[in-house]
Request: fold
Amino acid sequence: MIRLEKRPQPSRAWSLATPLIAVLATMIAGGLLFALLGKDPVEAIRTIFWEPLFGEFSFYYRPQLLVKGAPLVLIAIGLSLGFKAGIWNIGAEGQYIMGALVGAGIGLAFYPLEAWYVFPLMVIGGAFGGWLWAMIPAYLKTRFGTNEILVSLMLVYVAEQFLASMSLGLMRNPEGHGFPGSRNFNSYEGASSWINENAGMHWGVVAALIAVIFAYVLLNRHMVGYHIRLTGEAPRAAKFAGVNPARLILFCLGTSGMLAGLAGLFEVSGPSGQVSIDFNVGYGFTAIIVAFLGRLHPVGILLAGGLMALTYIGGDIAQSNLQLPSAAIQVFQGMLLFFLLAFDLLTNFRISLGKPEVA
Amino acid sequence: MTEVLLSLKGLTKAYPGVVANDSVSFDIGAGEVHALLGENGAGKSTLVKMIYGLVKPDSGEMLLRGVPFAPSEPRQARADGIAMVFQHFSLFDALNVAENIALGMENPPALRDLATKIREVSEAYGLPLDPYRTVGDLSAGERQRVEIIRCLLQDPKLLIMDEPTSVLTPQEVEILFQTLEKLRAEGTSILYISHKLEEIRTLCDHATILRLGKNVGECVPAETSASEMAELMVGAALTPPKRGNRDFGAVAMDISGLSVPSPSAFGTALRNVHLTVRRGEILGIGGVAGNGQDELLSVLSGEVLTQTDAVKLGADPIGHLGPVARRALGVLAAPEERLGHAAAPDMSLTENAMLTGATREGLVKNGFLKWAAAKEFAERVIEAFDVRTPGPENAARSLSGGNLQKFVIGREVLQRPEVLVVNQPTWGVDASAAAAIRQSLLDLAAGGAAVICISQDLDELMEISDSFAALNEGRLSAPRPAEGLTVEEIGLMMGGAHGMEVAHV
Reply:
């Protein structure tokens, strides 16, 4: 009989190995799925994992990896801080929108001034917008004990209404012949987040890398990071150690809101280019998955963000080249998450074969 | 001995890395109170779990009235007339007595019939209990009655009691013993697990002593001295902690008129607590579990804030200061719950050393953590307190309870506290480690620190305390010099029999 035995302590080797095993298992199970759909499994897997990186058109897809990966990593890093402490910000999508709106609003207000300080002001505005939107659930939770999951999630829909109103009203391009959407930042040099558009490099990529390093140092070397981990693992011990729960909530929600707001600003002033009704494509929600795929570890999140971006781009290629249905691609992405979480069990448990033990 | 009820022959049970029971054999006679004596970890619990069908023996057999008996689950054991009262009650606070008892039955009768039956049984055995009272309102002694009555309703032939007196005041113990005497007179056998020797000498007809999973001796308790039994149990003569001559200095901590509302629905509110402890003094605080011990520790450690001048360090009010600020002033604490409160289970010992050591040991600079220094501090604790672990990188949960307790106490003691507050410092710790922990508290006091030791182990408190007070329903009795206190007086300080009626036998 197969049994699970709890390890006396989490295994380091397994926690590094399980993501690789999970990717392999996804390839096998996904290959089976594609074979059942009558496609060549090897070809399909190759298209998803190989084509974007080393295929014929990789010069086009590689920059896309940066463009798609950066906001995911940036948002997920922020979320992971709260998740580690048991503070669940589900509303990063809303903070992302509000950051984009405040940052873009500053940029549009300066149009067409070309000055060095326009873009930095937009960055500050983006961070502030996201931070402010996250402070609403944070304040309500510390003051009245409301559930931050519900409040932050519901504020996403409020933010979406704001976005619609802004792109149809206040921020609409006066020279846009009445079409919804703001001026395009790609034609406003001083307010564009692109560093090198052909390479997919924009300031969001830089910010994501800085965020990874910042989070790593915070969690491993700083008292605040230690308190975050302690609160997540043993809330009573954290209280005993002197953690102020309210301050921690404000810090975690504020930081995650700020990073989500930054991601929104970099997106709206670069890859997306303008404030429009549907400029947000759900990065704020996908980032939750990325945070968990990366086991809430900064480096893990960096890799997970890359992997997630890869399956999105590879999935798109497979859809157009191999006529795979998009549902099959989604199932494939779901498998990846499933296997990662399932194999995660091995970090804390070992499988042993033998007689069951009644304790 | 008369007729044999249950006979154990060569019972062996091994867990990975440890033999919990090694070929244990003994007989329990009908109508006999049989003591099972041993230290923590001696294998008492595993043995009774085998009898109760919770654990299957690897080898050996049991005979119940001469018939082979191998229960595969507790239900089967109960059907054969074996009942057990666990040390930790499994009762729902929000339900009443009858509902709780019905929950444990296979085919519970209608609640009204059950209530009648509960009344009958409880009166027959001198355990008055109102079936309609909410369990959350009952004292520990009354909760134990619920568990006992739950067992008696099955009309058991053998009643197993696991450390039943650990939650009772001396007066409540007296009442319990009268009930057990009556059961014995009716022919029910009782297997009585304890490590309290005097109790066993009063109550039990026969004793089996376990050490490291082996049956190391049997005796008739009434004819054996407590020290002889203790030696059998520990395997060596114990050196009791030495207390030097102590001079008390100035008042180190002063609490006056402290009232704190209960933090949760079934917690205990502290009511008008006064205490002072001087430098060099050990103040022992006794009391039955759940009478405000946790709450008192939280107030002293700074986890719960109070009015500024309700808690004073020397002459300085500190009631408004949190744990970090209090540590900086030298007020340290070691809570009862090791895993999850005193230490984070999944974190390494180094990280757990950081948990309380950051301020006083200088493990943090400008908010950045000095892990090398924390590791060095953890190693010092491990070394000085003989914590058995491969090294400070191991997770707290990988340590045995006793070893982790040594780490938790050592971590505070090595920080040179001005005032140290400990709750249940030796709970679940083997005798030699417990002696070491007590010695370290005595040494600390001898060095001029004030120590407040909250414990439910009265022997421990009498051994180390200079003065003694007791918590009862959130009230603290006036402290009295520990020397010369009688068990009777201590019992009354703990609340006497909590208004429970004496058994009408």
The first strand of chain B starts at residue 4 and ends at 15. Residues 176 and 503 of chain B are 8 Å apart (CA to CA). Chain B touches chain A at residues 15, 54-56, 301-303, 322-324, 327, 333, 335, 337, 339-347, 351, 354-356, 358, 364, 367-369, 371, 394-395, 397-398 (CB under 8 Å).
